[in-house]
Amino acid sequence: MTKKKTDNVELLLSKLDKKQLADFIRKECANDSRLQDCFLALGAGALFKPNPKSYTSRVEDMIDDYAGRHGYIEYRATFIFPGRV
For the chain, what is the HEC assignment? Predict the structure, then answer.
């Protein structure tokens, strides 16, 4: 983000109250699952206790979904792999 945009974000954050921010976050999270995941990650360890079995199961499911014939995720499949930045 450019310095000007960063400054504008900081200025706006200083002007908005908690209710305005909460309403915005609720609306955007309802419409954007990636933002919702990022927002919920803020609560990881604080509000939500991580469950290793859940993570293991999710990783195994992704490997099953994207694994090639040799049992690993091939290079080309990484372009559509979830969470790739």
Answer: CCHHHHHHHHHHHHHCCHHHHHHHHHHHHHHCHHHHHHHHHHCECCCECCCHHHHHHHHHHHHHHHECCCCCECHHHHHCCCCCC
Q: Which residues lie below 8 Å from residue 84, measured CB to CB, with a gap of 6+?
A: 78
Q: In tens digits, what is the pLDDT along the chain, a chain of 85 residues?
A: 688 888 899 999 999 999 999 999 999 999 998 888 888 888 776 666 667 777 788 888 888 888 888 888 888 877 876 665 4
Strand partners for 48: 44
Alpha-carbon gap, residue 85 to 64, rounded angstroms: 21
Residue matched to tokens 């450019």: 2
Q: Which of 69, 41, 68 is nearest to 55 (CA)?
A: 41
